[in-house]
Structures are given as C-alpha cells and as structure tokens.
Amino acid sequence: MNEPRSLSSGFIESSQRFPDRPALQFEDTAVTYEALYEHVAAQAACLLRHRRPDAPPLTAVLAQRSLTAYSGVLAALFSGHGYVPLNPGFPPERSR
C-alpha cells in the first residue's frame, strides 16, 4: 500500500524528476518545474524569515490563476502553513 503524499511532496518529487518539463502554462508562457521550485523556495524562505511566533499557521494568498497564486499556495505549504485563498476581485472589506 502506498503512503499518502502531500501536495508539496508530490511537487518536490516532480521537480526533481522532471526539472525541464512545464509545470504551469499561462497563455504563451511555460514555467518549468525547476523555475517554479526556485520561485516557491524563495517565497517559503521569506515566509519563514518573517513568521511571527504568535500568528496562526495560515498564509493568505491574494492572487488568481497566476504564477503568484500557484507559487504562493506551494510556498505556504513548504513553510508548514495552510493557506487561505483570497480573490483579488473581491472588495477589500470582504478579504479583511
């Protein structure tokens, strides 16, 4: 029986096995697993540097169907957080 994998562990495995393959496609731009991994790792490191010890283990991701959205979700997971997706089209009062 296979052990359950997390989204982040599956992504790490894919980025190691297929670094040059496209991980994301946006219109005419493809982002490889290696490039996405580097982007995610940098964001996760930033989240960890600025983590407040008294804050809940959640990261808000204010983005929609973009490199920022997908890398933000993965960075939150890499840093040990859950994530809260926020829609940039919603009024600021609702997101707060």
Task: Describe what this molecule looks like in 3D.
This protein has 96 residues and is α+β, with helices and mostly antiparallel strands. It contains 4 helices and 4 strands; from the N terminus they run αββαβαβα. The strands form 2 sheets. A two-stranded antiparallel ribbon has the order 1-2. A two-stranded parallel sheet has the order 3-4. Helix 1 crosses helix 2 and helix 2 packs across helix 3. The longest helix is centred in the middle third of the chain and has 17 residues. The radius of gyration is 15 Å and the shape is globular. The protein starts with 6 loop residues before the first helix and ends with a helix. The relative contact order is 0.15. The model has no long low-confidence stretch (mean pLDDT 90).
